[in-house]
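Blinded run. Sample ID left blank on purpose so nobody reads anything into the name before looking at the predicted structure. Input follows.
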Amino acid sequence: MADILFYIALFLIWIMLLYHMFLMQGGYRHFRSFEKPIDEWSKKMANVPTVSVFIPAHNEAVVIEQTLRAMSRLYYPKDKLEIIVINDNSSDETGEIASRFAEKYPFIRVIETVEPNKGKGKSSALNSALADSTSEIVVVYDADNTPERMAVWYLVMGLVNDPKAAATVGKFRVINAAETWLTRFINIETICFQWMAQGGRWKWFKVTTIPGTNFAIRRSILEQLGGWDVKALAEDTELTIRVYNLGYHIRFFPKAITWEQEPETLRVWWKQRTRWARGNQYVVLKFLSQFFTLKRKSIIFDLFYFFFTYFLFFFGVILSNVLFIINLFYDIGLTVGDIAIVLWILAFLLFLGEVMITLSIEKTEMNRKNFFYVILMYFSYSQMWIVLVVWSLMLEIKRMFTGQEIQWYKTERFAKKSEQGAE
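Blinded prediction complete.
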């Protein structure tokens, strides 16, 4: 019986590893080809649509000034651009700093959330801005983001040239990657997610997940969907599913780049990633209950991907680890020890190969230091995710039974040391 359970666990683990290798190949192909249509697409950008950039902000005084400085430099006709800072129940100087920029730049303005949406979370803040604006395209950035000058232009370009696209998603880079060992791990994780997951899924299946930042979406789609789901911790993933169910797709266009700040301490990382995991678990549980009423096959595929990632894959990892450890102290009849070691070594080499190939896309990241960080990452950072996902699932199940309200789960910010992305 122990052998059967162990083989089931190995099967689940290897399915995910091979699938990510498949995504890595697709992401690399997308990297080689995504810039080719830009010259042709540029011809349709003579009369661009109006754009509203939403920046939800709750106690963001540490970062909001540099973020708005980057926004003021965006390449886009200023008579068709507005930057809306959504000051949501801040108790620091977020509102005052944003107001100073609004006085200096006529295309920047600040709105304050009011009851019943005040202090209820990111989704409520975004819905407030949606009701207070009229632009054809909505772009969303987190308050710690410094988009590159052409970012919004490229996001809009993707929509103008693709009528079937409801949204365009860019890529994000880590602005504080060199600060701590943790931010180095996150930097590697971010590059791999962008290219291995987003690029591969777009190349092979024309499926992309909306992130929490650096994306553009048509206002008509948002209004048709009734805005953002205020119960969702991962409002971006939840919105993705509903967009696909309308019959549209979401384009991944990594020419649009933003730089964002990542957690520099384990405490902040744990809170942020727990929110992400809980949010994605909520989406899976919400839409699996509507599985047979969903219209689009691409949604079913995406739901299965998230279900496999946050439930089956981690179940397989935990099961294999538990069986292996128990067998070290008690004889449970596990006879696959040598096979397990061989498969573990192969899995490690596959992980190492996938990550290093993905890092090669970003020329500055392919170095000896990152090679050693990838090895260390497998034995530390990747294992931390296992514990976090289990903890998140327990919290989300508790929330579902208690009916706990969604509040701001804001990531703690650190003083920025660079304006790398703003130029």
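Unblinding after everyone has recorded impressions. The CA atoms of residues 82 and 217 lie 15 Å apart.
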